[in-house]
Amino acid sequence: MYAVVKTGGKQYKVTIGQKLKIEQIPADIGQEITLDCVLMIESGEKMIIGQPTVSGASVKIAILNHGKHDKVKIFKIRRRKHYQKHQGHRQKYTEIFIKDINFNDSI
Q: Which SUPFAM superfamilies does the UniProt entry name for this protein (predicted)?
């Protein structure tokens, strides 16, 4: 059984018991949250595709950790013009644990 959820402008394929790093969520470590934007659920041979979301479906997650990804270095140069620009960026993330996938079986 798996589900496709949308959070932080991205879509993730999640299964129960999976750890995942997603875009930062403003929540405390150890807190349980439900994600309501479920785009698709697959359970055995049954597949439910939302239009745009599956009504009555949710994914329960637990917040494990907050952190920053590795630094992405940006270097721009114009040849023969004596122009160089150095930049860097570290994107913040939230590490989550998928506890449960809930949906209405009567669909």
A: L21p-like
